[in-house]
Structure of Recombination protein RecR:
Amino acid sequence: MTLALAQGDRALARRLSQALQQMDEEVVSCARCGHPTTRSQDPCTLCTDPERDPRLLCVVEDPGDIVRLERTGVFHGRYHALMGKLSAGSGTGPGQLRIEPLLKRIAEEGVEEVLLALDTDTESETTAGYLRELLESRGITVTRLARGLPSGSAIEYLDPDTLAGAVRARERFE
């Protein structure tokens, strides 16, 4: 990209540079959920949308997961990005994640259910277990994403944990 800009239209390179600088100055993480937004729209539109159910909060590891979930069009609550996961190996403890702001939101916003939409690796499972204990002790219903077969996949390619999760999360065929 650098070579193309250096050999190409210098005005385009300047406009791109200005746009990147403006983005750096204007784009921030939403103070509530962590999703990218602008300084003038903080909290973000996902947090201020009156059509969203404030009793339902989906906890994700990073803001990219919010984007992926929004693309499905099926979740109508609010979000909270932890900005990571617990990891003894990298020294990430509860204090490095956005857990305190999560607890504050739950208390202030009347959240009744927290959907844990975390990855399924060991560190994410540890994070999910930690959050479950923390939230259930406060009377919050904790749910998680079902595990199962990806659309268009074959059983022969599934790992045992995914297949076991699919069997446990089976549902009535209607």
Observations:
- The domain at 31-168 is CATH 3.40.1360.10 (Dna Topoisomerase Vi A Subunit; Chain: A, domain 2).
- Helices lie at 2-7, 10-26, 45-48, 63-72, 99-109, 122-136, 160-168.
- The chain has a mean pLDDT of 92.
- The first strand starts at residue 27 and ends at 29.
